[in-house]
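User: For this week's homework, look closely at the record that follows, marking any run of repeated tokens, and judge whether sequence predicts the tokens.
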Amino acid sequence: MSRLKIYTESGELIEDITSPEEIAKKLKEINVLFERWTANKPLGDNPSDDEIIEAYKHEIDKLIKQYGFKSYDVIAMTPDHPKKQELRDKFLKEHTHSDFEVRYFVYGDGVFYLHPNDKVYILHCTAGDLISVPPNTKHWFDMGDSPNFKCIRLFTTEEGWVAQYTGSDIAEKFPKYEEVVND
């Protein structure tokens, strides 16, 4: 189940939201897009990247038209990925991008932390969730110790995922994936 918790920068809980419609409304206030998607055809247990793209083509095309995305792909992370800890450490540092960060969770989950103002928005994304973080929005991501997800990513630039780290230690002050999903 998707869940959004909003905190002060000092860690005081302000709101706890589980309704997808309310999550979308709250995130829209900070220019973050949140949607729930459904495949236009059933996907088997282990769909290929092409089958996944085809199943969500209508939604992908809508975002391409709306935001001018130039490319997209499918990325998977598994518990046995040889670089899982290195990647987790990289994503856990607060950063921004000059491009959107768009993820649609085909399966699995992850936690996005958004820090656009004097609040921290912690969003537990699950299968069926799309999040689009606008350029230059401070954020970080946690996939946990044993990541297991597959996502569609969309990009407006050829470079793809390039982070500009803020140097802030704020990410260390908030609960990690395991604590968020088990709360």
Remarks:
- The chain is about 20% helix and 35% strand.
- The chain has a mean pLDDT of 92.
- The two ends are 12 Å apart (CA to CA).
- Residues 57-67 form the longest helix (11 residues).
